[in-house]
Amino acid sequence: MSYAKAQSKNVVWDWLTTVDHKKVGILYLAGGAFFFALGGIEAVLMRIQLMFPDMAIVQAQTFNELLTMHGTTMIFLAAMPLLFGFMNFIIPLQIGARDVAFPFLNALGFWLFFFGGLLLYVSLFTGGAPDAGWTAYVPLSSNSPGQGLDYYVLGLQVSGLGTLIGGINFLVTIINMRAPGMSMMRMPLFTWSSFVASMLILFAFPALTIGLLLLMLERLFGATYFAVDFGGNIIIWQHLFWIFGHPEVYILILPAFGIFSEVIPTFAKKRLFGYSAMVFATLIIGFLGFMVWAHHMFTVGMGPVANAIFAVATMAIAVPTGIKIFNWLLTLWGGRIQFTTANLFALGFIPSFVMGGVTGVMLATSAANYQFHDTYFVVAHFHYVIIGGVVFGLFAAAFYWWPKMFGYRLSETLGKWFFWLFLIGFHMTFFVQHFLGLMGMPRRVASFLPGQGLDAMNFISTIGAFLMSIAFIILLIAIFASTKNRDNVQDPWDGRTLEWTVPTPVPEYNFAQTPLVRDLDPYWYEKHEGDGKIKAAEPLGEIHMPNATVLPVTISAGLIVASFGFIYHVLPLIIGGFIITFGAMFVRSIKEDHGYHIPVDVIKRDKEEGK
Amino acid sequence: MKYIWRLLPISFILLLSGCGVENLSALDPQGPVAEMQYSLIQLSLYIMIFVLVVVFAIYIFVIVRFRERPGDTHIPKQVHGNRTLEIIWTTIPILLLLMLAIPNVMDTFTLADMSVDGGVEDGEEIDHVRVEVTAHQFWWEFEYPDLDVVAGQDMYIPTDTRILIELQSSDVQHSFWVPALAGKQDNVPGITNEMWLEAPEEGVFMGKCTELCGPSHWLMDFKVIAVDPDTFDTWATNMAEPPAHLAEPEGQVAVDGRGVFEESCISCHAVGDEGGNIGPDLTNFGEREVIAGYLDYDMDNLEAWLRDTQDLKPGNEMPSFNEEAINAEEMDALLEYLDSLKILEE
């Protein structure tokens, strides 16, 4: 046991070995933003190709690789890690905890995700990225030549392990680590929705793990689960993929719903309308999310009974989603709405997402789905819900929590330019795609032929994509130009929840004294019913903290080495990689590491400096 | 105000139906199946536009009425919720969804109904033709089991007849979509799927593969050609028992071309009852509108295609024929012969 602050002087080493949930959160954001940029570049390349008919900026094979990498990147390596970043940073603060339940696993989850993503991207330099779509339908994927799909299988397997670990960690954290008085029904909605999303991760990701394992055995070891000539069945893959894949979209959207449920009350200066209805709607969406996977497979020949059941079940999801929309509207009703950039994204979300929601109900109409399926109508729909929902949520979260995370507010002027350009570009890109699909344009086409009435709308769509790109550049400028505004304000938005009660920058132990929660929106309650200060639930005492450790990086790196061994059939690499991974796990198991304690006088000094 | 509410969905539909090419767009249905799906799309659209109007109206009212005005610092009343409202906005969506779900379930079963007894006991059967559609990377094979016909790329059907389709695949998953006539069903390896369609009017309808199937997925087009039942009978008879000129063409150039065909093509492609079945059947090649599924039918394009198939349709199985394999003279003869493969004219 030591009192020394086990912080390294080397910045790189510090970030490599950190187990602090705030730093891990920032790592997730940085990693997610990196892959988000890559996925964005891929999207723009595809839109340039589709700007005019019969263009050959990239070859058809390359286009298939681009669409595969774009989808895979945006879902697994951008949207989810960015959400994880905010969840990591914010949830412990919102529930009054000093860290997540398992700080070591938290770091491990990040490094698994990041290395898995990098592994996937190595395929670009080794003769071809995966080319069978992010859904990797067999037998196109199992027969795909080259190593691209091997990278897909192993990269996603490793990063999926990280996600699963992260999800379990959030579950345990939220169940066990809440401050006194923070009952489940006093939890902020962001924590609630992250809790439900983590449950979905816990049950959905194993299906993906199994699917990827089967595909790996098929590709690397000649198994025949999906080989029709040997009695295999290709539909198994589609079921496994969508049993994971459909909950996955709720894993993305529920935390975003949570973000809006924080941002809207803050900037409407009003308590969330129908809190308990919101909680139950979230739970119902999470539950129904597991009941509807086969609506991705209406045309695969399941028969009318299955199609009808899954159609009705899918439509049912519109009900709890509608409840949430109306509760947000009623939260705004009678409020004093401030049009900050964060709130603009929340307000832009409502109409954009509702448009994506109604096309979702249209898609759920199984008989009509035979026309919609696998066309640009579907492309339009899921970009409306994922950009209009998840990405808007991420931007709202970024502008909302940025001052807490980095000590400065992002420029509101640039932020508003960013918002409007992005909103217009987004609708311009994707609205016309509904019609393109119905006019006969299948999705995942490397180009389209002239004379089929598809030219004008594809051109409009590409211009919209350019506007979105310009918007992103403005966001980047805003992030760097705003650093001069650094003021370390503790509570910039007149916040309602516990994260605004801790000083900025947040001390590594978060709360000098564990807070006592007396109501929903505890900070708002104390501001208006109490003396504006959160009551402490414990006397000031020394704080036990976990040590930094390099083992998470080591464990993850070992799996990457082993993955290369699998991809290129090099047995020594497989063995070596597993020795690294299991060796590091062994060290972790036998080495006693009791962490360190922060003495009371340091906490007191921090407190005085904080004021 | 009332007028606007009525005009909105109508103008939307006008906007919709003005879009796209007639024989490709799902918004311009040319047969009963596509019409059924289009009316379901319209129904869902009307319900959804109603939802959008309600939400947008509340939304715009709220953000205009309750925006923060300069100098306003009041603290709004902290409302907890309202049970009545929660019940209202739970019940109404359920009713709206039922309005859509019930016709959808009925249509889903209608579209899956492959019976041809016309719904009447001891009644006459509905006129029908069976077609087995096999998808290949990246072309389509149409077999008419009752008529002993195999055709490639162009699916001839008689008008006003129920076409019962069985879908299969020889390699990866594809999907059979003729938007103007019917929504899609997938061609799944190892599984046979069924669907039906009808075309009341004659016409050439564009079909597309909608499941990512490889580099030339976007070029995997086909045609559904609806002709009157008499013409269809002629077509089917000639396809099953090909006229003599297919194997023994008139004119020396075409005869030479037949020689080239027998040397270089016949192991994969059939004309009449002679030839392999690895590539599309070419019995009626001279009547195609397009080459390789998408190139305009002319001799320059045909030569370009034969010379470099990978450039024009990457990843397909057909070899290219350079000058050494087929010299210029032989190529001209081959083109002449292929162009003579017609069974409907005369």
TrEMBL record, chain A:
EC number annotated for this UniProt entry: 7.1.1.9
Keywords, sorted A to Z: Cell membrane, Copper, Electron transport, Heme, Iron, Membrane, Metal-binding, Respiratory chain, Translocase, Transmembrane, Transmembrane helix, Transport
SUPFAM superfamilies: Cytochrome c oxidase subunit I-like
GO cellular component: plasma membrane
Protein origin, superkingdom: Bacteria
Listed GO biological process terms: electron transport coupled proton transport; oxidative phosphorylation; respiratory electron transport chain
Enzyme class: translocase
UniProt topology in membrane: Multi-pass membrane protein
The reaction(s) this protein catalyses: 4 Fe(II)-[cytochrome c] + O2 + 8 H(+)(in) = 4 Fe(III)-[cytochrome c] + 2 H2O + 4 H(+)(out)
Molecular function per GO: cytochrome-c oxidase activity; heme binding; metal ion binding
Pathway(s) annotated for this protein in UniProt: Energy metabolism; oxidative phosphorylation
Cytochrome oxidase subunit I profile domain: residues covered: 7-518
Pfam families from the UniProt entry: COX1
Transmembrane segments: 26-48, 68-91, 103-124, 151-177, 189-216, 236-260, 272-293, 305-330, 342-364, 376-402, 414-436, 456-481, 566-587
CDD domains: Ubiquinol_Oxidase_I
Subcellular location: Cell membrane
Function, in words: Cytochrome c oxidase is the component of the respiratory chain that catalyzes the reduction of oxygen to water. Subunits 1-3 form the functional core of the enzyme complex. CO I is the catalytic subunit of the enzyme. Electrons originating in cytochrome c are transferred via the copper A center of subunit 2 and heme A of subunit 1 to the bimetallic center formed by heme A3 and copper B.
Family: Belongs to the heme-copper respiratory oxidase family.
Protein name (record): Cytochrome c oxidase subunit 1
Organism: Salipaludibacillus aurantiacus
Top-level taxonomy: Bacteria, Bacillati, Bacillota, Bacilli, Bacillales
UniProtKB/TrEMBL annotation, chain B:
Cofactor(s) this protein requires: Cu cation
Keyword flag Amino-acid biosynthesis: no
Function: Subunits I and II form the functional core of the enzyme complex. Electrons originating in cytochrome c are transferred via heme a and Cu(A) to the binuclear center formed by heme a3 and Cu(B).
One Gene Ontology term, aspect cellular component: plasma membrane
Main subcellular location: membrane
Protein name: Cytochrome c oxidase subunit 2
Bilayer topology term: Multi-pass membrane protein
Transmembrane segments: 44-66, 87-106
Single annotated GO MF: oxidoreductase activity
Alphabetized SUPFAM superfamilies for the sequence: Cupredoxins, Cytochrome c oxidase subunit II-like, transmembrane region
Domain Cytochrome c, first and last residues per copy: 252-342
Sorted UniProt keywords: Copper, Electron transport, Heme, Iron, Membrane, Metal-binding, Respiratory chain, Translocase, Transmembrane, Transmembrane helix, Transport
